[in-house]
Design a protein that fits this description.
With 384 residues, the chain is α/β, with parallel strands linked by helices. The protein folds into 2 domains: 3-247, Aspartate Aminotransferase, domain 2, CATH 3.40.640.10; 250-383, Aspartate Aminotransferase, domain 1 (Alpha-Beta Complex), CATH 3.90.1150. The chain contains 13 helices and 12 strands. The protein has a 7-stranded mixed beta sheet. Strands 8-9-12-11-10 form a 5-stranded mixed beta sheet. The termini are far apart. The structure holds pyridoxal-5'-phosphate. Pyridoxal-5'-phosphate binds next to helix 3 and helix 4.
Protein backbone atom coordinates (compact mmCIF):
# COMPACT_ATOMS: atom_id res chain seq x y z
CA UNK A 1 0.00 0.00 0.00
CA UNK A 2 1.43 3.38 -1.00
CA UNK A 3 1.59 5.77 1.97
CA UNK A 4 -0.63 8.09 -0.09
CA UNK A 5 -3.53 5.67 0.40
CA UNK A 6 -3.21 5.50 4.17
CA UNK A 7 -5.80 7.04 6.48
CA UNK A 8 -5.02 10.19 8.44
CA UNK A 9 -4.12 8.39 11.68
CA UNK A 10 -1.50 6.37 9.80
CA UNK A 11 -0.25 9.30 7.74
CA UNK A 12 0.80 11.09 10.96
CA UNK A 13 3.30 8.23 11.43
CA UNK A 14 4.22 7.24 7.89
CA UNK A 15 3.17 10.10 5.62
CA UNK A 16 5.99 11.15 3.31
CA UNK A 17 8.53 9.21 5.38
CA UNK A 18 10.45 6.00 4.82
CA UNK A 19 13.32 4.33 6.66
CA UNK A 20 16.57 6.19 5.97
CA UNK A 21 17.93 4.95 2.62
CA UNK A 22 21.57 5.22 3.80
CA UNK A 23 21.29 3.12 6.99
CA UNK A 24 17.76 1.77 7.36
CA UNK A 25 17.20 3.92 10.47
CA UNK A 26 13.44 3.80 11.11
CA UNK A 27 13.36 7.36 12.43
CA UNK A 28 14.60 10.01 10.00
CA UNK A 29 18.04 10.96 11.38
CA UNK A 30 18.97 14.52 12.32
CA UNK A 31 21.14 15.40 9.35
CA UNK A 32 23.21 18.04 11.08
CA UNK A 33 25.26 18.89 8.00
CA UNK A 34 25.41 22.14 6.06
CA UNK A 35 26.96 20.62 2.94
CA UNK A 36 27.12 17.33 0.98
CA UNK A 37 29.92 15.61 -0.91
CA UNK A 38 29.73 15.81 -4.70
CA UNK A 39 31.31 13.19 -6.99
CA UNK A 40 31.87 15.80 -9.72
CA UNK A 41 30.82 19.47 -9.75
CA UNK A 42 27.02 19.50 -9.69
CA UNK A 43 26.79 15.72 -9.31
CA UNK A 44 25.28 14.77 -5.96
CA UNK A 45 22.59 12.67 -4.31
CA UNK A 46 19.96 15.42 -4.36
CA UNK A 47 21.46 17.53 -1.59
CA UNK A 48 24.14 20.18 -2.01
CA UNK A 49 23.63 22.80 0.71
CA UNK A 50 21.19 22.69 3.64
CA UNK A 51 19.52 26.07 2.98
CA UNK A 52 18.30 24.62 -0.31
CA UNK A 53 17.45 21.16 1.00
CA UNK A 54 18.19 18.98 4.01
CA UNK A 55 17.00 15.36 4.38
CA UNK A 56 15.46 15.84 7.86
CA UNK A 57 13.63 18.98 6.75
CA UNK A 58 12.59 17.22 3.55
CA UNK A 59 10.92 14.42 5.56
CA UNK A 60 9.00 17.03 7.55
CA UNK A 61 8.00 18.87 4.36
CA UNK A 62 6.72 15.60 2.91
CA UNK A 63 4.88 14.85 6.15
CA UNK A 64 2.90 18.12 6.23
CA UNK A 65 2.10 17.76 2.53
CA UNK A 66 0.65 14.29 3.14
CA UNK A 67 -1.37 15.45 6.16
CA UNK A 68 -2.92 18.32 4.19
CA UNK A 69 -3.52 16.08 1.16
CA UNK A 70 -1.15 17.73 -1.32
CA UNK A 71 2.23 17.01 -2.96
CA UNK A 72 4.17 20.06 -1.75
CA UNK A 73 5.31 21.14 1.71
CA UNK A 74 7.86 23.66 2.98
CA UNK A 75 9.32 24.19 6.45
CA UNK A 76 10.50 27.46 7.97
CA UNK A 77 12.18 28.81 11.09
CA UNK A 78 8.83 29.91 12.57
CA UNK A 79 5.18 30.33 11.69
CA UNK A 80 5.83 33.99 10.98
CA UNK A 81 8.72 33.12 8.66
CA UNK A 82 6.28 30.92 6.71
CA UNK A 83 3.75 33.80 6.56
CA UNK A 84 6.54 36.17 5.49
CA UNK A 85 7.39 33.83 2.59
CA UNK A 86 3.76 33.72 1.45
CA UNK A 87 3.45 37.52 1.49
CA UNK A 88 6.60 37.76 -0.64
CA UNK A 89 4.51 36.34 -3.50
CA UNK A 90 2.96 39.82 -3.68
CA UNK A 91 4.08 43.03 -5.42
CA UNK A 92 3.64 46.68 -4.40
CA UNK A 93 0.04 47.75 -5.04
CA UNK A 94 -1.39 44.24 -4.56
CA UNK A 95 -4.25 43.99 -2.10
CA UNK A 96 -5.03 41.41 0.56
CA UNK A 97 -8.34 40.80 2.30
CA UNK A 98 -7.75 39.38 5.76
CA UNK A 99 -9.93 38.47 8.68
CA UNK A 100 -10.21 41.23 11.30
CA UNK A 101 -9.83 38.66 14.09
CA UNK A 102 -6.26 37.70 13.27
CA UNK A 103 -3.27 36.32 15.20
CA UNK A 104 -1.53 39.40 16.67
CA UNK A 105 1.84 38.59 15.11
CA UNK A 106 0.31 38.24 11.64
CA UNK A 107 -1.44 41.60 12.09
CA UNK A 108 1.87 43.18 13.10
CA UNK A 109 3.73 41.66 10.11
CA UNK A 110 1.00 42.85 7.71
CA UNK A 111 0.56 46.37 9.05
CA UNK A 112 4.05 47.26 10.29
CA UNK A 113 6.22 45.59 7.63
CA UNK A 114 4.43 44.65 4.42
CA UNK A 115 2.27 47.80 4.35
CA UNK A 116 5.56 49.71 4.17
CA UNK A 117 6.38 47.86 0.92
CA UNK A 118 3.12 48.97 -0.69
CA UNK A 119 0.91 45.96 0.01
CA UNK A 120 -2.62 47.05 0.92
CA UNK A 121 -4.53 45.14 3.60
CA UNK A 122 -8.29 45.24 4.20
CA UNK A 123 -9.44 43.67 7.46
CA UNK A 124 -13.02 42.45 7.39
CA UNK A 125 -15.29 40.37 9.55
CA UNK A 126 -15.41 37.04 7.74
CA UNK A 127 -18.70 35.90 9.23
CA UNK A 128 -20.28 36.93 5.93
CA UNK A 129 -18.63 36.91 2.48
CA UNK A 130 -20.68 40.02 1.59
CA UNK A 131 -18.38 42.00 3.91
CA UNK A 132 -15.59 41.70 1.30
CA UNK A 133 -17.63 42.93 -1.67
CA UNK A 134 -16.57 46.58 -1.36
CA UNK A 135 -12.89 45.62 -1.25
CA UNK A 136 -12.60 43.23 -4.17
CA UNK A 137 -11.05 44.65 -7.31
CA UNK A 138 -8.46 43.74 -9.95
CA UNK A 139 -5.66 44.27 -7.42
CA UNK A 140 -7.03 41.71 -4.95
CA UNK A 141 -4.41 38.96 -5.01
CA UNK A 142 -4.85 37.15 -1.73
CA UNK A 143 -7.47 36.29 0.85
CA UNK A 144 -6.07 35.41 4.26
CA UNK A 145 -8.08 33.67 6.90
CA UNK A 146 -7.65 31.86 10.15
CA UNK A 147 -10.24 29.53 11.64
CA UNK A 148 -11.04 29.04 14.49
CA UNK A 149 -10.00 32.64 15.10
CA UNK A 150 -7.75 33.65 17.93
CA UNK A 151 -8.96 34.34 20.61
CA UNK A 152 -12.67 34.85 19.82
CA UNK A 153 -13.13 31.32 18.41
CA UNK A 154 -15.18 32.45 15.42
CA UNK A 155 -15.47 29.84 12.70
CA UNK A 156 -15.02 31.02 9.13
CA UNK A 157 -16.58 29.11 6.26
CA UNK A 158 -13.52 28.07 4.21
CA UNK A 159 -15.53 26.69 1.26
CA UNK A 160 -17.57 29.92 0.99
CA UNK A 161 -14.40 32.06 0.98
CA UNK A 162 -12.74 29.80 -1.58
CA UNK A 163 -15.55 30.75 -4.00
CA UNK A 164 -14.88 34.44 -3.32
CA UNK A 165 -11.16 33.87 -3.96
CA UNK A 166 -11.84 31.97 -7.17
CA UNK A 167 -14.09 34.71 -8.53
CA UNK A 168 -11.51 37.35 -7.65
CA UNK A 169 -8.70 35.15 -9.09
CA UNK A 170 -6.95 35.56 -5.75
CA UNK A 171 -5.12 32.96 -3.70
CA UNK A 172 -6.86 31.67 -0.60
CA UNK A 173 -4.43 31.15 2.30
CA UNK A 174 -5.64 29.49 5.49
CA UNK A 175 -3.72 29.67 8.76
CA UNK A 176 -4.64 26.21 10.07
CA UNK A 177 -2.66 26.48 13.33
CA UNK A 178 -5.64 26.34 15.72
CA UNK A 179 -7.34 23.36 14.09
CA UNK A 180 -4.36 21.31 12.87
CA UNK A 181 -4.92 19.02 9.87
CA UNK A 182 -6.52 16.50 12.25
CA UNK A 183 -9.58 18.73 12.58
CA UNK A 184 -9.73 20.29 9.13
CA UNK A 185 -7.94 20.16 5.78
CA UNK A 186 -8.48 23.53 4.09
CA UNK A 187 -7.12 22.50 0.68
CA UNK A 188 -9.98 20.01 0.36
CA UNK A 189 -12.30 22.98 0.96
CA UNK A 190 -10.72 25.07 -1.80
CA UNK A 191 -7.69 26.77 -0.22
CA UNK A 192 -4.48 27.19 -2.27
CA UNK A 193 -1.99 27.39 0.61
CA UNK A 194 -2.23 26.13 4.17
CA UNK A 195 0.04 27.66 6.77
CA UNK A 196 0.88 26.31 10.24
CA UNK A 197 2.68 27.54 13.23
CA UNK A 198 3.93 24.00 13.93
CA UNK A 199 5.12 25.46 17.24
CA UNK A 200 1.59 24.70 18.46
CA UNK A 201 -0.38 21.46 17.88
CA UNK A 202 1.81 19.86 15.20
CA UNK A 203 5.01 19.77 17.24
CA UNK A 204 2.76 19.69 20.29
CA UNK A 205 5.26 19.70 23.15
CA UNK A 206 6.19 23.38 23.52
CA UNK A 207 9.81 22.60 22.69
CA UNK A 208 10.24 24.04 19.21
CA UNK A 209 9.36 27.13 17.12
CA UNK A 210 8.68 26.19 13.49
CA UNK A 211 6.45 27.08 10.54
CA UNK A 212 5.03 24.96 7.71
CA UNK A 213 3.29 25.48 4.40
CA UNK A 214 1.31 22.98 2.33
CA UNK A 215 0.71 24.04 -1.27
CA UNK A 216 -1.73 22.65 -3.82
CA UNK A 217 -0.27 23.87 -7.10
CA UNK A 218 3.16 22.80 -8.43
CA UNK A 219 4.06 26.18 -9.97
CA UNK A 220 3.06 28.03 -6.81
CA UNK A 221 5.06 25.54 -4.73
CA UNK A 222 8.07 26.20 -6.97
CA UNK A 223 7.72 29.94 -6.45
CA UNK A 224 7.53 29.53 -2.68
CA UNK A 225 10.49 27.15 -2.69
CA UNK A 226 12.44 29.85 -4.56
CA UNK A 227 11.48 32.38 -1.86
CA UNK A 228 12.42 29.90 0.89
CA UNK A 229 15.87 29.38 -0.59
CA UNK A 230 16.40 33.05 -1.53
CA UNK A 231 15.30 34.54 1.80
CA UNK A 232 16.69 31.62 3.79
CA UNK A 233 14.33 31.46 6.79
CA UNK A 234 14.60 27.67 7.00
CA UNK A 235 14.33 25.55 10.14
CA UNK A 236 17.28 23.54 11.39
CA UNK A 237 17.41 19.71 11.27
CA UNK A 238 17.00 19.31 15.04
CA UNK A 239 13.77 21.32 15.03
CA UNK A 240 12.55 19.42 11.96
CA UNK A 241 13.21 16.15 13.84
CA UNK A 242 11.32 17.31 16.95
CA UNK A 243 8.36 18.37 14.83
CA UNK A 244 8.32 15.04 12.96
CA UNK A 245 8.34 13.25 16.28
CA UNK A 246 5.50 15.43 17.56
CA UNK A 247 3.39 14.80 14.47
CA UNK A 248 3.51 11.04 15.07
CA UNK A 249 1.11 11.45 18.00
CA UNK A 250 -0.96 14.33 16.58
CA UNK A 251 -4.11 12.23 16.23
CA UNK A 252 -3.83 10.82 19.77
CA UNK A 253 -3.19 14.22 21.33
CA UNK A 254 -5.92 15.99 19.35
CA UNK A 255 -8.51 13.45 20.40
CA UNK A 256 -7.73 14.14 24.07
CA UNK A 257 -7.46 17.92 23.52
CA UNK A 258 -10.99 17.81 22.07
CA UNK A 259 -12.41 15.66 24.91
CA UNK A 260 -10.83 17.87 27.59
CA UNK A 261 -11.81 21.06 25.74
CA UNK A 262 -15.44 19.99 25.81
CA UNK A 263 -15.39 19.13 29.53
CA UNK A 264 -13.72 22.42 30.46
CA UNK A 265 -16.05 24.47 28.22
CA UNK A 266 -19.12 22.81 29.73
CA UNK A 267 -17.83 23.31 33.27
CA UNK A 268 -17.15 27.03 32.71
CA UNK A 269 -20.46 27.58 30.92
CA UNK A 270 -22.33 26.30 33.99
CA UNK A 271 -20.28 28.32 36.52
CA UNK A 272 -22.17 31.21 38.17
CA UNK A 273 -19.15 33.57 38.00
CA UNK A 274 -18.64 33.07 34.26
CA UNK A 275 -20.45 35.34 31.83
CA UNK A 276 -19.60 33.89 28.38
CA UNK A 277 -17.62 30.95 27.02
CA UNK A 278 -16.41 31.08 23.42
CA UNK A 279 -16.17 27.50 22.16
CA UNK A 280 -17.51 26.35 18.77
CA UNK A 281 -18.91 23.08 20.14
CA UNK A 282 -21.86 24.82 21.83
CA UNK A 283 -25.06 24.74 19.79
CA UNK A 284 -25.52 28.37 20.85
CA UNK A 285 -22.20 29.36 19.23
CA UNK A 286 -23.10 31.59 16.24
CA UNK A 287 -20.96 29.50 13.83
CA UNK A 288 -21.68 26.06 15.32
CA UNK A 289 -23.15 24.68 12.09
CA UNK A 290 -20.11 25.72 10.02
CA UNK A 291 -17.84 24.12 12.63
CA UNK A 292 -19.87 20.92 12.36
CA UNK A 293 -19.61 21.01 8.59
CA UNK A 294 -15.88 21.67 8.18
CA UNK A 295 -14.27 20.34 11.36
CA UNK A 296 -14.00 16.81 12.69
CA UNK A 297 -14.36 17.99 16.30
CA UNK A 298 -14.14 21.31 18.16
CA UNK A 299 -10.57 21.43 19.45
CA UNK A 300 -8.95 22.31 22.75
CA UNK A 301 -8.94 26.11 22.48
CA UNK A 302 -11.52 28.29 24.17
CA UNK A 303 -11.83 31.68 25.75
CA UNK A 304 -14.15 33.04 28.39
CA UNK A 305 -15.18 36.15 30.19
CA UNK A 306 -16.05 36.55 33.85
CA UNK A 307 -19.17 38.42 35.01
CA UNK A 308 -16.69 40.72 36.74
CA UNK A 309 -15.42 42.37 33.55
CA UNK A 310 -12.39 44.13 35.03
CA UNK A 311 -8.93 43.29 33.70
CA UNK A 312 -7.69 42.86 37.30
CA UNK A 313 -10.27 40.14 37.94
CA UNK A 314 -9.15 38.16 34.87
CA UNK A 315 -5.46 38.51 35.70
CA UNK A 316 -6.06 37.55 39.34
CA UNK A 317 -7.86 34.39 38.26
CA UNK A 318 -5.10 33.39 35.84
CA UNK A 319 -2.49 33.89 38.55
CA UNK A 320 -4.38 31.60 40.92
CA UNK A 321 -4.31 28.70 38.47
CA UNK A 322 -1.83 26.00 39.42
CA UNK A 323 -2.23 23.24 36.81
CA UNK A 324 -2.73 25.71 33.96
CA UNK A 325 0.49 27.66 33.37
CA UNK A 326 0.32 31.38 32.65
CA UNK A 327 2.12 31.59 29.32
CA UNK A 328 1.94 32.62 25.68
CA UNK A 329 1.46 29.93 23.04
CA UNK A 330 -0.92 27.00 22.78
CA UNK A 331 -1.29 23.48 21.48
CA UNK A 332 1.20 21.76 23.78
CA UNK A 333 0.42 18.74 25.95
CA UNK A 334 0.29 21.01 29.02
CA UNK A 335 -2.62 23.36 29.69
CA UNK A 336 -1.92 27.08 29.35
CA UNK A 337 -3.88 30.18 30.28
CA UNK A 338 -3.34 33.63 28.84
CA UNK A 339 -4.67 37.17 28.86
CA UNK A 340 -4.89 38.18 25.17
CA UNK A 341 -5.32 41.94 25.74
CA UNK A 342 -1.93 42.25 27.45
CA UNK A 343 -0.16 39.23 25.94
CA UNK A 344 -0.78 37.73 22.47
CA UNK A 345 -2.91 40.65 21.22
CA UNK A 346 -1.16 43.60 22.86
CA UNK A 347 0.08 44.68 19.38
CA UNK A 348 -3.53 45.29 18.27
CA UNK A 349 -4.89 48.74 19.21
CA UNK A 350 -7.58 48.65 21.92
CA UNK A 351 -10.31 50.12 19.63
CA UNK A 352 -9.63 47.33 17.12
CA UNK A 353 -9.69 44.71 19.88
CA UNK A 354 -13.02 45.94 21.23
CA UNK A 355 -14.56 45.90 17.74
CA UNK A 356 -14.13 42.12 17.60
CA UNK A 357 -15.30 41.62 21.19
CA UNK A 358 -11.84 41.09 22.67
CA UNK A 359 -12.35 42.76 26.04
CA UNK A 360 -9.73 43.43 28.70
CA UNK A 361 -11.39 40.72 30.81
CA UNK A 362 -11.07 37.92 28.27
CA UNK A 363 -9.11 34.79 29.29
CA UNK A 364 -7.84 32.27 26.75
CA UNK A 365 -7.22 28.63 27.57
CA UNK A 366 -5.25 26.06 25.65
CA UNK A 367 -6.62 22.90 27.20
CA UNK A 368 -3.92 20.25 27.40
CA UNK A 369 -4.05 16.47 27.69
CA UNK A 370 -3.86 16.15 31.48
CA UNK A 371 -6.65 14.44 33.44
CA UNK A 372 -9.68 16.67 32.81
CA UNK A 373 -10.74 16.42 36.46
CA UNK A 374 -7.48 18.06 37.57
CA UNK A 375 -8.08 20.89 35.10
CA UNK A 376 -11.63 21.43 36.33
CA UNK A 377 -10.60 21.34 40.01
CA UNK A 378 -7.90 23.90 39.21
CA UNK A 379 -10.43 26.22 37.58
CA UNK A 380 -12.84 25.64 40.48
CA UNK A 381 -10.29 26.72 43.11
CA UNK A 382 -9.23 29.76 41.06
CA UNK A 383 -12.86 30.83 40.54
CA UNK A 384 -13.75 30.15 44.18
C1 LIG B 1 1.68 31.22 16.95
C2 LIG B 1 0.88 31.55 15.75
C3 LIG B 1 1.47 32.09 14.60
C4 LIG B 1 2.94 32.43 14.54
O1 LIG B 1 3.74 31.33 14.61
P1 LIG B 1 5.23 31.32 15.26
O2 LIG B 1 5.63 29.91 15.16
O3 LIG B 1 5.07 31.81 16.67
O4 LIG B 1 6.05 32.26 14.45
C5 LIG B 1 0.66 32.32 13.51
N1 LIG B 1 -0.67 32.06 13.54
C6 LIG B 1 -1.27 31.56 14.62
C7 LIG B 1 -2.74 31.29 14.60
C8 LIG B 1 -0.53 31.29 15.77
O5 LIG B 1 -1.14 30.80 16.86
Amino acid sequence: MATKDLRFNSLTIHGGQAPDPATGAVMTPIYQSSTYAQSAPGEHLGYEYSRSANPTRKALENSIASLEGVDFGLAFASGLAAIDAVLKLLRPGDEVIATNDLYGGSYRLFTKLFKKYGIVFHFVSMNDTANAEDFINAKTKMIWLETPTNPMMNIIDIAAWSKVAQQAQALLVVDNTFASPYLQQPIKLGADIVMHSATKYLAGHSDVVLGLLAIKDAALAQELKFIQNSSGAICGPMDAFLTLRGIKTLHLRMQRHCENGRLVAEYLQAHPKVDKVFWPGFESHPNHSIAQKQMKDFGGMLSFQLKDERQEAAIKLIQKLAVFTLAESLGGVESLAGHPATMTHAAIPKEERLKIGLSDGLIRLSVGVEDAQDLIEDLAQALG
